[in-house]
């Protein structure tokens, strides 16, 4: 019978070399070499070759005919050497792969070393994206010992068993297909299906590699409400002896997406409202332990989500297992992201084959994602379009039970051919954060739905960043917890009220590493999470979703980190999924309120130090506020390494400055002339950058529909826009910005007609 041995402890790790040499560090797997430098900003984390070396002592292994080394993930390319011989090469940092090492093992000890490389190249995805590409053997390594006759270990890292249930009335026909080496004489396959309680519901024995059984009165997998799982096993037997066995859990369910009603699970409307998840953590990168995955699942359960978009790559098998058990509907995707690589087609195909082969049996997965924001450089590239058609056809050939989707970058026109290749489509929109205003979100989706009424439309990303900055007057781009809360209140009301939106996925459940970022005063991270990178603090916006999505009664007082306030009367916000909230200040009630939208707002006198208590039914939450004369400097964003901060800018009353939005400036004639000059200045810088890079690179703006982009751009302040374009290599010096501000100071703001 098959035996699996952990091979995680005691590896010699050599950094920056392509073969074992120099001084080694002893590490245990999972391991990444970018757990710190991949999260501290500067886009300077180490990317290159590193080596993991260990000895295999054959006598310590179970007796078997063949031995496989299983690498659960190596980011992003790897070469496996056994006994000095190169055994396998693998491209793709998020899926499992194996190497048959049988003939390379000696009777004594054998050297194994794995060269892992995360350096940039032109053919392995991802290459350009807003997250850190952590290098390493970050999901562990196993040795699998098997009989000569065994279930296939060589095909795209698969398990060797494929289970396809089909609901027929009250029953389900379950097809179990297996993949094996050549069966010998008298070798057959024994099939068994067990229910959740471990009872046999069907069994049989056959020489065929496909077997179908019927489960009578089938218990359906019904998402968070009832995530019921069966288990199928297949065992190769000869004369009553078991030679090898594999198993898979599966769920019996039907689903479809209606362009007007959204997601339909088991013939019932089942709104998909949830989050996206990156797998990394503060200080440890992507080298997660099982308890980290389990904690993430519990936090996503708590917020009340029904769906998770597992971005932007294949996640750990353990996490998919947890999704099956809890009942999340999952969007699983490959890292075909941001920039289309002319030499990357084969890699998209191989990564998609691995994703589907390794994850086919997971009941939670309902859609396969083809790409994310891939049209950064334009949507009309014939090679990009063909690549998507190939992937779409491949998915339907490999899996006839699920749907395909794409996540489209905001500036891509809804009329592009690319947008209509997959079965479903979702958009990444950040109106109210990256330009535009929050009230643009709902109407945009209404426009899409009106124009393409038979095309299911969803929201694959939306969100805004928040750190421990605070204000009573939140504005777009201030990175305060209060603006993030306001933003999500508005988006919840707009998106959740539109039944036709087939799925909504907040970007993101957790803050995550993005070493190129220098935003919000803490470099190296994307802070759009509802929870901090270390999972220790749930931002107020987390509870806005819990109020709408969770059935667990609670009350949450917002702003508990915002104690010192200058105003005489301050706004206090409370979130709860209970119908009524009463607020107390120093034990005295200031009133009761009901709120159908779950957001309760109170005005409170700010005098001295006050204890604020929110009470809903038997639940309460408490915090403090304190009257101060001057704004607490600890609450004010100070960008690390910023050329200019907003408070350093001269902004005379009645005149424009870098702190004003493009929209307000463009509303004036002189402002339009100034904007034209700025545009020419940016173009000059971009042309110079292209020339320096050989003149072949495309700009991000090459793929933008500028007519659709203008409403977004109008919401940016000039300073924020200049900071943002710095992320794509276009920068302004302090002197240039001050000169720009001086010109804006000469332009009068229109007088307020109401006065």
Explained architecture:
- The structure is a single chain.
- This protein is α+β, with helices and mostly antiparallel strands and 755 residues long.
- The protein folds into 5 domains: 3-146, Sandwich (Jelly Rolls), CATH 2.60.120.260; 161-250, Immunoglobulins (Immunoglobulin-like), CATH 2.60.40; 255-552, TIM Barrel; 569-634, Sandwich (Immunoglobulin-like); 642-745, no CATH class.
- It is built from 12 helices and 40 strands.
- An 8-stranded parallel sheet has the order 29-28-27-26-25-24-23-30. The chain has a 6-stranded antiparallel sheet with strand order 3-2-4-9-6-7, with no helix packed on it.
- Strand 21 and strand 22 (268-269) form a beta hairpin.
- It is globular.
- Residues 696-706 have low confidence and may be disordered.
Write the layout of secondary structure elements.
Layout (H helix, E strand, L loop, with lengths): L2 E4 L4 E5 L9 E3 L21 E9 L8 E6 L5 E6 L2 E7 L5 E4 L8 E9 L23 E6 L14 E8 L2 E8 L8 E8 L5 E7 L3 E6 L5 E2 L3 E2 L2 E9 L2 E10 L4 E4 L3 E4 L2 E2 L2 E6 L12 H14 L3 E4 L6 H10 L2 E5 L11 H15 L5 E8 L9 H17 L4 E7 L15 E4 L12 H11 L5 E5 L19 H15 L7 E4 L5 E2 L11 E2 L13 H10 L5 E3 L6 E2 L3 E8 L3 E6 L2 E7 L4 E7 L3 E8 L2 E9 L34 H5 L2 H24 L13 H8 L4 H8 L8 H12 L10
Parallel strand pairs: 23-24, 23-30, 24-25, 25-26, 26-27, 27-28, 28-29, 34-40
Antiparallel strand pairs: 1-10, 2-3, 2-4, 4-9, 5-8, 5-10, 6-7, 6-9, 11-12, 12-15, 13-14, 13-18, 16-17, 18-19, 20-21, 21-22, 31-32, 33-35, 35-38, 36-37, 36-39, 39-40
Helix pairs in contact: 1-2, 3-4, 6-7
């Amino acid at each position: 019978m098959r035996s699996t041995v952990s091979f995680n402890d005691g590896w010699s790790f050599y950094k920056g070399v392509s073969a074992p040499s120099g001084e080694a560090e002893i590490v245990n797997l999972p391991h990444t070499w970018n757990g710190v430098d991949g999260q501290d900003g500067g886009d300077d984390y180490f990317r290159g070759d590193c080596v993991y070396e260990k000895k295999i002592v054959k006598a310590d292994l179970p007796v078997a005919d063949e031995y496989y080394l299983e690498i659960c993930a190596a980011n992003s390319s790897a070469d496996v050497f056994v006994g000095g011989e190169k055994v396998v090469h693998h491209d793709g940092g998020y899926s499992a792969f194996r190497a048959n090492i049988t003939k390379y093992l000696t009777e004594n000890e054998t050297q194994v070393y794995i060269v892992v490389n995360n350096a940039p190249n032109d053919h392995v995805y991802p290459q350009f994206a807003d997250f850190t590409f952590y290098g390493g053997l970050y999901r562990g390594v196993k040795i699998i010992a098997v009989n000569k006759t065994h279930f296939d270990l060589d095909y795209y890292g698969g398990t060797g068993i494929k289970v396809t249930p089909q609901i027929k009335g009250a029953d389900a026909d379950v097809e179990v297909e297996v993949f094996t080496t050549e069966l010998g004489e008298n070798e057959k396959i024994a099939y068994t299906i067990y229910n959740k309680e471990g009872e046999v519901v069907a069994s049989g024995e056959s020489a065929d590699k496909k077997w179908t059984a019927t489960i009578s009165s089938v218990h359906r997998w019904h998402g968070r409400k009832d995530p019921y799982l069966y288990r199928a096993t297949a065992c190769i037997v000869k004369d009553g002896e078991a030679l090898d066995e594999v198993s898979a859990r599966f769920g019996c369910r039907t689903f479809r997406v209606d362009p007007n009603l959204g997601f339909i699970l088991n013939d019932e409307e089942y709104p998909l409202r949830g989050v996206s998840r990156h797998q990394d953590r503060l200080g440890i990168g992507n080298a997660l332990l099982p308890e980290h995955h389990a904690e993430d699942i519990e936090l996503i359960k708590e917020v009340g989500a029904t769906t998770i978009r597992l971005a932007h790559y294949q996640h750990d098998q353990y996490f998919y297992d947890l999704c099956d058990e809890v009942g999340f509907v999952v969007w699983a995707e490959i890292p075909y992201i941001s920039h289309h690589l002319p030499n990357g087609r084969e890699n998209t195909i191989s990564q998609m084959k691995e994703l589907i082969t390794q994850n086919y049996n997971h009941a939670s997965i309902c859609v396969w994602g083809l790409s994310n924001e891939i049209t950064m450089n334009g949507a009309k590239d014939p090679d990009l379009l063909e690549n998507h058609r190939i992937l779409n056809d491949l998915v339907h050939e490999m899996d006839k039970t699920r749907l395909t989707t794409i996540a489209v970058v905001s500036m891509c026109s809804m009329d592009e051919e690319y947008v209509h290749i997959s079965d479903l489509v979702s958009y990444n929109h950040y109106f109210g954060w990256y330009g535009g205003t929050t009230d643009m979100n709902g109407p945009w989706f209404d426009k899409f739905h009106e124009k393409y009424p038979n095309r299911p439309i969803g929201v694959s990303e939306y969100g805004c960043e928040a750190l421990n900055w605070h204000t009573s007057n939140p504005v777009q781009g201030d990175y305060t917890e209060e603006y993030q809360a306001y933003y999500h209140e508005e988006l919840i009301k707009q998106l959740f009220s539109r039944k036709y939106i087939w799925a909504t996925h907040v970007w993101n459940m957790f803050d995550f590493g993005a070493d190129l970022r220098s935003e919000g005063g803490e470099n190296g991270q994307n802070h759009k999470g509802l929870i901090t990178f270390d999972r220790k603090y749930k931002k107020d916006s987390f509870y806005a979703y819990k109020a709408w999505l969770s059935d667990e009664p609670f009350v949450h007082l917002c702003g508990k980190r915002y104690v010192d306030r200058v105003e005489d009367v301050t706004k206090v916000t409370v979130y709860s999924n209970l119908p009524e909230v009463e607020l107390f200040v120093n034990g005295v009630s200031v009133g009761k309120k009901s709120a159908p939208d779950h957001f309760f707002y109170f005005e409170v006198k700010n005098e001295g130090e006050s204890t604020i208590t929110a009470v809903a039914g038997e639940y309460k939450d408490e915090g403090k506020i304190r009257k101060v004369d001057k704004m607490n400097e600890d609450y004010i964003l100070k960008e690390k390494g910023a050329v200019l901060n907003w408070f350093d800018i001269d902004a005379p009353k009645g005149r424009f400055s870098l702190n004003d939005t493009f929209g307000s400036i463009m509303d004036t004639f002189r402002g339009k002339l100034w904007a034209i000059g700025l545009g020419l200045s940016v173009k000059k810088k971009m042309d110079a950058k292209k020339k320096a890079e050989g003149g072949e690179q495309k700009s991000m703006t090459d793929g933008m529909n500028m007519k659709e982009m203008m409403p977004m751009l109008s919401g940016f302040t000039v300073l924020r826009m200049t900071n943002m374009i710095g992320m794509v290599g276009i920068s302004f010096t302090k002197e240039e910005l001050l000169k720009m501000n001086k010109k804006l100071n000469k332009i009068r703001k229109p007088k307020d007609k109401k006065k």
